[in-house]
Amino acid sequence: MKILYYPGCSSEHLARDLYLSIETLASSLGVELEVLSDWNCCGAREIEEAPEGVGLFLAARNLALAQGEELLVACSLCFHNLKRAQDLLRKEAGFRARIAELLKEEGLELSLKTPQILPLTEFLARLDLSKFRSAGFRGLPVAVYYGCFLSRPCPTDLEALEKALSAVGYPVVPTTLKSHCCGGHLPRTDSPVIKNLCQRLIFEAHQKGATGLAVACPVCKLNLEIYGGPSFPVRYFTQYLGLALGLSPSWLGLPEEE
Amino acid sequence: MEPGLLLEDILQKLAEEGYQISKRTFLYYVQLGLLPKGKRKGQKKGGVKFYYPTWTLERLKAILELKKKGLKLKEIQERLPKKAPSPPLPKTFSQAERLKDCNACGICGAICPVYEEMDLPPWRLIQAWEEVPDSLPSANTPWVCVGCYLCETRCPQEIPIVEFLRFLRREGLPPGRRWRKHPEWSRIFWSLLEERGRSFDFGAVHAYQIRVLGPAEDQRLLLRLPGPEGEKEVTAPSKIKGLPALKRALERARGWK
Known about the structure:
The structure holds 2 protein chains of 2 kinds. In chain A, α1 (16-29) links the parallel β1 and β2. In chain A, the strands form 2 sheets. A 4-stranded parallel sheet of chain A has the order 2-1-3-4. In chain A, strands 6-5-7-8 form a 4-stranded parallel sheet. Chain A has 2 domains: 2-121, Glutathione S-transferase Yfyf (Class Pi), Chain A, domain 2 (Up-down Bundle); 134-252, Rossmann fold (3-Layer(aba) Sandwich), CATH 3.40.50. Chain A has helices at 16-29, 52-65, 76-91, 93-103, 120-126, 160-167, 193-207, 218-227, 237-244, and strands at residues 2-6, 32-35, 70-73, 116-119, 142-145, 172-173, 213-215, 234-236. Chain A is built from 9 helices and 8 strands. In chain A, α3 (76-91) packs across α4. Chain B has 3 domains: 5-79, Multidrug-efflux Transporter Regulator, Chain: A, Domain 2; 96-170, no CATH class; 183-254, no CATH class. Chain B has helices at 7-16, 23-32, 55-68, 73-79, 96-99, 107-111, 122-131, 141-144, 150-154, 161-170, 183-196, 202-205, 243-254; strands at 5-6, 39-42, 48-52, 209-213, 220-225, 230-234. Chain B contains 13 helices and 6 strands. Classes of the chains: A alpha/beta, B mainly alpha.
């Protein structure tokens, strides 16, 4: 199976472990990741202070480059930016016309229908992962955390993480804060509030008997690691999946002793 | 009436856009008549502050651009229009109609995970906007919002609160009170995006200190990580092929009104 894939800027830097685990996981599941040719940055949080056209254009260029039914996106913020822009361009003919004009520079054309923007969580949940589970693997209980952008304003399947992880043998502990906020960009402002937000999430997972927290978003993971308290493991859900498939921790961006 | 911008706000805004100018130079330009004089206004807590008309910002940018081209101050003075531009059109929020539905129930403030950091809850800004759009009370609210959309999903009137705060941030409203400790990041982010088409995962590294060394072609990025790892060097993002076209399109998109 082949799928078109938008890596996003974090894949080249601090979320390298997420992307490493995605690549490893894909090859062991027999999924061919076709990286979107000449993709560009989605503008992250910074587009919010630029004129609307900037964010729309950055997203639209990627969408126009994506010639296919689906576009797989791993980073939650990229997912949000691409999805928000796609929805807005579908709704507002005025924006659409102006963006089409900008895309002409490169001879690109935007399609209204495709691609469908597919979050990594949903993509992995729809595969039959149970048959790849390593024989004799016994998973310890984990809690899951989706964060904001997979939950709002364009909600994705909020059972996807549970489905994927339990398919490979992890008991998933139910939590109430799985769609709550980790504090996002607050550290940039030196606000002390973020500690509370992160520690609360870790506390709940810990109290409910989880041995670790499986997350999907690079920003959430960093915030939770830095502000959530030192002793509770926070890993990408793809890393948990890889371990259950018997893949070497170092291929998943984890320390060797895991 | 909009009271105008403080000198500090003007300099910060310019720094975010990559312009370098000192307070002293600014005041020198005022003295020369290149920039308008500030309006003196007494403060409640005592003391006075000077507020400059909002078009000062655009005019100063124009001056700095001309200076970059090597023009002398006298030549610049001749080129710039003598009079103040006609007053800007009132800023309009595209979904302004929906703000009228706000019944000040207060849920948006109560549900907000970062409410403790806000000077005013979102509903207070909505109410103030409904009264006089051009004169919002001073508040850091638009800059504190992390965009988690919790308020929007819980608002009984389904008001696009996050979009409204985004709009205020984009327009630099309310004037005079911003809350961003690290405008430098924003500047680096955009310069990388424009020079390479890809940037840095600043969303994720916002907790770190970053240093950029060297010119655009040979940039070195150093990150200081909290914890035992200390400072580490990372590679600058790879360049995209369609860069010239992307640059042109971005410039046009920036001109959107």
